[in-house]
Amino acid sequence: MAKPIIGLALGGGMARGWAHIGVIRALKDIGIVPDVICGTSVGALVGGAYLAGHLDALEAWTRSLNRRRLLGYLDLLSGGPGLMGGKRLVKEMERYFTGMKIEDLGSRFCAVCTELATGHEIWLQSGDLVTSIQASYALPGVFPPMKVDGRWLIDGALVNPVPVSVCRAMGARLVLAVTLSGDSFGKSNLQEGERMVAEEENGSNGGPLWTTLSPQRLLMRQLFGTGSGPPGIGTVMLGALNIVMDRLSRSRMAGDPPDVLISPRIGHVSLLDFDKADEMVRLGREAVLVATPYLDEALSILR
After folding, report:
1. From 32's CA, which of 50, 161, 173, 233 has a CA 20 to 30 Å away?
2. b/e map of 211-237 (b: 16 or more CB within 10 Å)?
3. How many Cα atoms are found within 13 Å in the side-chain-facing hemisphere of 123?
4. Which of the given ranges, 58-72, 81-95, 98-112, 189-203, has the highest pLDDT on average?
5. How many CA atoms lie within 13 A of 154 on its CB side?
6. Which of 106-110, 223-227, 242-246, 286-290 shows the lowest mean pLDDT across its residues?
7. What gap in Å lies between CA 131 and CA 148, rounded to an integer?
């Protein structure tokens, strides 16, 4: 019998998404190469980079991130549809993805988004790769929405955090899903934004990035608070997103479960811990090792 079409659903989860890199590496090590990849938010970024042949470059970039470099990417805006313009991140993607289209990737790929006007789940399976990835991770209030084919699109995690259903619709017989919120219950990451602000202000990242009264520093303190009062609006937004992704992932996968669930133990990692790629990649690899017996069993049934 022919090998079953394998789909890989890469879930959303901001900084936790670096675990997807380890998952893809480990799957390749045991001889599993997906035929279909569907990604939501950071899952779309990692999946797109892999199919574009630039996973090595993405991994090198993630491992180079530290607190100071992260703050340098925060092109904060005082007005407009998002807190950040996201242009500095886009420049990084354009170094490798400029001119690339989804239909030219060689394997089937889909970036999952949400239509702002209707709440409909939108599947981007063709068109500019950079634009599609941007739309998939356009978290409301943080990044501006992206206009694609006349529709304003935002983060796909609001409707389908782990796109198992998309893989099935695209012809996958065996669906592997990677969830980034499998062990987040009861683990609070509310202080992470405050810690970033405090580290920047006391110069523990090589000296302050912004002047004492700069608009950027004042905005960061407003967003994340200073620890002496209630959490800032940015902290509340990220905490709410974490809850939504966890609850919606459970609900969606209860109705349409994957054949094999890969769940890295990363609940202790904040959504903002983008500088922990080393740990995330390692935990992604370890999660595949745990799931290997189930992968072998599923493949033996379908072959």
Report:
1. 161
2. eeeeebbebbbebbbeeeeebbebbbb
3. 17
4. 98-112
5. 18
6. 223-227
7. 8
Paired sense of beta strands 121-124 and 108-115, if any = antiparallel
According to DSSP, the residues that pair with 84 across neighbouring strands are 76
Alpha-carbon span 230 to 139, nearest angstrom:
23
Question: What residues contact 232, with CB distance under 8 A and at least 6 apart?
Answer: 193, 194, 221, 222, 223, 224, 225
- Stronger pLDDT, 67 or 181, i.e. the higher one: 181
Burial bucket for residue 142 (CB in 10 Å: 0-12, 13-18, 19+): buried
Q: Bridge-partner residues for 174, per DSSP?
A: 6
Nearest Cα to 182, choosing from 284, 32, 44?
Answer: 284
Distance CA 258, CA 88 (A): 35
Taking 90 as the threshold, does the pLDDT of residue 110 lie above it? yes
Angle at 18 between CA 15 and CA 23, to 5 degrees: 145
What's the CA dihedral at 230, 234, 240, 244 to 10 degrees? -170
pLDDT tens by residue, 73-82? 666 555 555 5
**Tokens 């994340």 found at:** 224
Residue 37: helix, strand or coil by DSSP?
strand
pTM: 0.86
Amino acid at 184: S
Q: Answer yes or no: are the C-beta atoms of 223 and 233 closer than 8 Å.
A: yes
Residues annotated as catalytic (active site), given as ranges: 41, 155
Strands of the chain (E only): list them: 6-10, 36-40, 108-115, 121-124, 146-148, 151-155, 174-178, 260-262
